[in-house]
Write a structure and sequence with these properties.
Elements lengths: L19 H48 L4 H13 L8 E5 L8 E14 L3 E14 L5
Antiparallel strand pairs: 1-2, 2-3
Helix pairs in contact: 1-2
Length: 141
Amino acid sequence: MMPAPRLGSRHDPRRGQRGVAAVEAVLVVPLVLVPVLLSVVVFGRLEHTRLVLDAAAAAGARQAAVVGADTAAVRTRIDEELRDGGLDPTSVRVTIEPAIADWGDPIRVRVEVGEQASIPFIGSWAVPLSAEFVTRSEVTH
């Protein structure tokens, strides 16, 4: 009976597979791990945008409740909140209903934006994001 060849010697039958792990790593990292890492970044950005929209809707509703109407001050407050969160106010649609509210009437502020999610090797799609906040008017007209 012949002794088994020493590990890594010229006669070791596994010698031809020494670079397989490196080749597998070169294929797996760009095709699997990079899209996973980028998807975490993309979904984090979408969640950040949603939180900014929530804050803008809440700030706008609070301002609208104090003045009792859809005024330039309300729109300015919403724009400031969007800018502070890193969003362009011109790309956001703002709806305030009703235009004038009496004491105790509900005031609804809705902000909407269309975002684009794009992940390499997976795809790209439009993601509509919106936030809505309802409060009651604190002004008697």
